[in-house]
Amino acid sequence: MVRRVRRLARRLYERVLEREVDGVPTHVAVIQDGNRRYARGKGEGTAAGHRAGARTAESVLSWCSELGIEELTLYTFSTENLNRPPEEREELFDLIENKLYEFADDDEVHDEQVRIRAIGQLDLLPQRVIDAVDYAERRTADYDDQYLNVALAYGGRAELLNAARDLCADVEAGDRAPEDIDVETIEDRLTERRARAVDLIIRTGGDERTSNFLPWHANGNEAAVFFCAPYWPEFSRVDLLRAIRTYQSRQKSWRRTRTDRALALLQAVGADRAVVSRLTEKVGEIPQADLDELDDVEPLSAD
Fold it and tell me: Is 80 labeled as ligand-binding?
């Protein structure tokens, strides 16, 4: 009886959250933490935790499709994971290889036209995993409705360092002038599979850190961050909706900040309502109380 009540309450809460969703992030990136702790809590081996986490990844991709999220990046295997015991690494490689083939042949992936891409230092992976990456990318290469980026042997600092070294070599060889290096140049060097700026990072498992994940694409875009307690295998649609609500709150706060800055500037120069109206189209709605306040502002004198 108690379980039924809890399930009902959770479904009702999920519906409430769905009604609160007003615009979703374009690109969500997830740090899938807690697989091993989940398995230990169940009295099982690490492989069982990773398998459960892989099933959650399938669900999250489906939820993102339903909600209209265009790009999902999963932090599947970091460069630090290469230091794990050999037997655990092999278990992970087996799982990654199998899941890439499964995703590539999945009917839902093709129905939703999901393009699968891998990012990271793929040359550090076993050839069998690289072959699975190639297969998944070839099978979905013509799609562009939704993107699934799988971060493998990935480390954010290493990615930035390699890009900087490549550009320095170009400058030293005379192939590029320093003043020609811009944001787009760096993004081109970060990965052959260019990703959108990250709007929302989600980390499961209770830790509140972003672990060297997509520093250029996330921090540069001032992405919202949502930390939650459930281990990755326990992550639910409710948790995803709560994360999106955090993103929306972050967006509203940022729009309000921009509005406040714009109003301060307008008040300083004594702008009239016509100017405010044009600015409103750019920064969002300005409350009537703030517009009324402008009527009492004296323009700055030429002195």
Answer: yes
Q: Which two tokens stand for residue 28?
A: 């969500």
The arithmetic mean of pLDDT across residues 269-284, rounded, is 57
Q: Is 35 annotated as a binding residue?
A: yes
Ordered structural domains, the chain, with CATH: 22-235 (3.40.1180.10), 256-295 (no CATH)
Of residues 75, 41, 71, 65, the one with CA closest to residue 204: 75
Residue 258 marked ligand-binding: no
Kind plus residue range of the DSSP H or E element containing 227: strand 224-227
Whole-number Å distance between alpha carbons of 32 and 51? 12
The residue count of the chain comes to: 303
234 contacts: CB under 8 Å, gap ≥ 6: 34, 38, 56, 204
Active site residues: 33, 81
Q: Is the whole-model pTM more than 0.90?
A: no
* DSSP E strand boundaries for 81-159: 114-119, 146-154
pLDDT tens digits along 53-104: 999 999 999 999 999 999 999 999 999 999 999 999 999 999 999 999 999 9
